[in-house]
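Changelog-adjacent note: as of this version, every example in the card shows the full chain rather than a window. The one below runs 468 residues end to end.
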Amino acid sequence: MGGFDIFVNASNAFLNPVTAALGTLIASPSLTSICVNGSSAPPAGTGSCTVNSANGPGVVEVTTIESSGGNECGGISPCSGMAFTITYHAVASTPSTRIFYPENPSCGAATSVAGTNECVAVDDAFGGVLSETIQGATGQAVGLTLVSVVKGTDNNLYYNTFAGAWGGTWQPLNGQTPSSPSLCASGGTTTELVIRGTDNGIYHKTFSGNSFAATWDKNPTGLTNNQPVCAVVGTTLYVVVIGNTGELWSTTFDLSARTWAASWTDLLGTTASPPALVATPSLSRLDLVVRGTNNQIYHKAFTSGAWAPAWDTSNRSPVPDKTIGTPAIVSDGTQLHVVVIGTEGNLWYATLSFTGVWSTYQSLIGSTSAIPVLVIDSAGTLHLVVTGTSGAVYQKAHPSGGSWDATWTNAGGIVSGTPAVTTIGATVHIVVKGSDARLWYNTFSGGTFSGYVSMNAAAALSPSISTP
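Full-length structure tokens:
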């Protein structure tokens, strides 16, 4: 075996080839060419594509020869090994799609499959064609399950999608922000992005299918000095911001009509940190929890189409409940779960019933250097994810009807800022910014972390993540 020239085809409407890499079949390869989607341009390809052949959209061609001029197998058969691998990006969901060797008249003169035009050519060291038996295959495109948005180190916004793996290339969003972006799931295939613009205006884009809208929906009147927060009920996107005077305001965006509300609602309160907002769609309810300017913890609900006129608080006497950062909140459909950083830096947990009753705070025996994140999985288990004072990521769980874990699970690593966290089923998905600004992905399932995987990008601020 002295070399090969092999083409592989798939429908790039479902599986789009991103790159290919040689395996170990040829010990000392030379004159290698890799052509992906009809292009040999780096970084996906190398060398040159064979012209007037089967190359084109969805096709990968890989060809190489043994540099020594000898026979790869030493003249002794059989000889086996991996010729090459292809990395695909799942573009759209499908139960099954063909992966096959294409046929083309240009391949008929040198094919290893006698009597066909199959584009598979495997040669011996003298250029003679070796006979091969081929098989087709099927692939399953699992569909997009996650989307992440980050502020890059060049200050521009980028996004990436996850369909079994993160895509190789981050896509530009043609916008900039001085604050971290906010993502809110809005449907089975849609997610809403809300940001503070460099002019302090409020901007929105919808992610649908596998990409974001081309243009931004700018709120015509609003301004903010911090990260906006959002939540979706039905076809309405609710947005809460801190105005330039520190006061809290709310507005809506109609996801069907694609229009902002004509006015803002003054929430009659101020905060020293970004607010926390969560929706309970089954009840058409929103819950807003903030750190007051006196560091006490305040709550306001949106029910029956209107915000409550007054704030309630978990405050106790004679020692008030206080926090030094943004609370972490999540709804289980019947009550609100709240985690805060106390004034001494330690983490505390309480619940708020939808009838307005606060529990006392319970110590979670841990501390954090960044805003904590609280999520709930399909089994009703709470997961608290924090950046520890050591810089590592830690997780603690609270099963439905149970109690918090006695100890924390350490994911390791040294990260900066707040992790981006969401759940799919019983799996917790995490994106973090490393201490070197690089982005890393990890999952937590069955009591253990899977380990960090590089996302081939860097960020200037904490990332965001959502399920579309």
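Structural remarks: The chain has two domains: 3-141, 146-466.
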